[in-house]
Design a protein that fits this description.
- The protein is α+β, with helices and mostly antiparallel strands and 58 residues long.
- 33% of the residues lie in helices and 19% in strands.
- It contains two helices and three strands, in the order βαβαβ.
- A three-stranded antiparallel β-sheet has the order 2-1-3, with no helix packed on it.
- α1 crosses α2.
- The longest helix has 10 residues.
Length: 58
């Protein structure tokens, strides 16, 4: 999964900021690649309004 941060974490709860940091995202426009696991899916569900997710072939 290709995950890109598209919105700022300013004015969002600390938990959402920490979730983005745990995913490896720290600023707008940054992109990371993670395996599609239930843990990652759960994290993305909590911050879906801040990121864009693209499915990629492994």
């Amino acid at each position: 999964m290709k995950i890109t941060q598209v919105r700022s974490v300013i004015d969002y709860p600390e938990r959402q900021r920490r979730t983005l940091e745990a995913l490896g995202l720290r600023r707008i426009g940054r992109t990371v690649v993670h395996d599609d696991t239930p843990q990652i899916r759960g994290m993305l569900k909590k911050v879906e309004h801040l990121v864009r997710v693209e499915e990629i072939e492994a």
